[in-house]
Amino acid sequence: MADFKTTYHALPDTEPDEYIACHECAALHRKIPLGEYALAHCARCGAVLFRRATGRIDVLLALALTSAILLIIANSFPIVELQTSGMSSQATLLGAIGQLWREKMYLVAAMMFGSTVLFPAIELGALIYVLAPLAIGRRAPGVKAVIRLIQAARPWGMIEVFMLGTLITLVKLSRAADLTLGPALFAFIALSILLACLSAFEPRHLWHSAASDGSSFPRKTNSIGRTWALLLAAAILYIPANLLPVMHTRSLLGVQDDTIISGIVFFWNSGSWAIAIIIFVASVVVPLLKLAALALLAFTAQRGMRGGQRARARLYRLIERIGRWSMLDVFVVMLTVALMRFGTLIEMSAGSGALAFGAVVILTMLASMQFDPRLIWRSADSPEPDSTASS
Q1: Burial class (CB in 10 A: 0-12, 13-18, 19+), 290
Q2: Do 247 and 257 fall within a single domain?
Q3: InterPro entries, from UniProt (predicted)?
Q4: Among 110, 289, 312, 382, which residue has the fewest nearby CB atoms (within 10 Å)?
Q5: Would 186 be classed as within a structural domain?
Q6: Distance (Å, rounded) from C-alpha 165 to C-alpha 257?
Q7: Beta carbons within 8 Å of 171's beta carbon, 6+ residues apart
Q8: Strand 28-33 vs strand 247-251: parallel, antiparallel, or unpaired?
Q9: Are 236 and 367 in the same domain?
Q10: Higher pLDDT, 5 or 304
Q11: Is the pLDDT of residue 228 over 50?
Q12: pTM of the entire structure?
């Protein structure tokens, strides 16, 4: 058993358990209080057990409340207004989602609403529900279930990805029209920064302050089978996602269909090389990397292979962090469709490729969630690691 430094928020009249199990490899560690601004890493797989840099409940509550206000503002005002040939068009986030719905792209609209409105709202509301009582030394009813809700909702909130997609869309459309930035754009920028601060704090760090009964993270049943099924579905959809058009354009010059690759070529040929590279990495490299990496992890876990477990654990954490950024191209399509509607002059609509690509992103994210990283260590027979810590 490894001695390991950690930290916690203890409620009045409660004592934390002496040991903690790593949520990724199940290695057991003895808890020792951390110093300020320090991290506690698992001595076996390297996963972060606890961090103290964002440990003040009052600061977290202030960030959550401010983020909730900004989310309301961001959804209440225009993001940007376009003006060309005496005509104008403006877009709000909800308006862009509504436009996809009217075009009968119901699944794409649902994906956009969930990732930019619903799940961020759930996460912030649940955080406030947990943190507000903790700030005065109390515990809210049903707090364990709410903490699990925060953990479930957080990966699906993609405000920062939407923000990057918005900036790319503005660069793309600035060549065709005059832009007027709306208040929602600045609200989204501020919201992205605050959510990045909140993301440094993980909900499980509240576990010992809000759920003091020592509950652990349950095993995932049939993890490998579910992972393979989701990976197979994602791999099949990846082909039409790259071959089918993600956007249709109708103008006085005729009809044009654009795929993900043609969009990358457009930015490259127009001199926006950095944007072309960003979209290529997010829309082509990352999905392929996730498919290959998850297949490797599932195969090695299924075969009970030994060796390289720590490297595979790092690979798992990497694909969990980067998978959401593949939604970037879908956000670009959504905003472009909402803004470029000037009657008979030009009109854009989302293509079936956008739906297929969004499904690939969701399926690969679900696959990584279904995979239980503790299976990497199932056949490990090495002795327990020595005491270690970083700060």
Answers
A1: buried
A2: yes
A3: PqiA-like, PqiA-PqiB_transport
A4: 382
A5: yes
A6: 20
A7: 272, 275
A8: unpaired
A9: yes
A10: 304
A11: yes
A12: 0.80
Report the C-alpha gap between 50 and 358 in whole angstroms: 33
Residue 39 tokens, joined: 């991290």
Domain count, the chain: 3
Examine the fold and report which residue of 174, 197, 213 is the final residue of a domain before the chain moves on: 213
**Range of 65's domain?**
55-213
What gap in Å lies between CA 90 and CA 80, rounded to an integer? Answer: 6
For residue 118, what are its two tokens? 């619903």
119-135 and 143-153 helices, crossing angle to 10°? 140
**Radius of gyration (C-alpha) of the chain in whole angstroms:** 23
- Looking at the fold, whether 189 and 49 belong to one and the same domain comes out as no
Q: Is residue 285 part of a domain?
A: yes
Q: How far apart are the first and last CA of the chain?
A: 21
Q: Are residues 121 and 11 in the same domain?
A: no
State whether 48 and 59 are in the same domain.
Answer: no
Same domain, 192 and 226: no
Together in a domain, 229 and 371? yes
What distance in Å separates the CA atoms of residue 200 and residue 198, rounded to the nearest whole number?
5
Is the four-CA dihedral 242, 244, 246, 247 of positive or negative sign?
positive
| Domain identity same for 61 and 202 | yes
User: What pLDDT digit, counting tens, does each position of 161-189 carry?
Assistant: 999 999 988 888 887 778 889 999 999 99
User: What would the pLDDT profile of 44-97 be if each residue is shown by its tens digit?
Assistant: 887 777 665 445 788 889 999 999 999 999 999 999 888 876 677 788 899 889
**Where do runs of H (alpha helix) occur along the chain?**
57-74, 93-102, 106-113, 119-135, 143-153, 159-173, 183-199, 207-210, 223-243, 260-269, 273-280, 286-303, 309-322, 328-339, 352-370
Report yes or no on 381 lying in a domain: no
Percentage of the chain with pLDDT > 70? 81
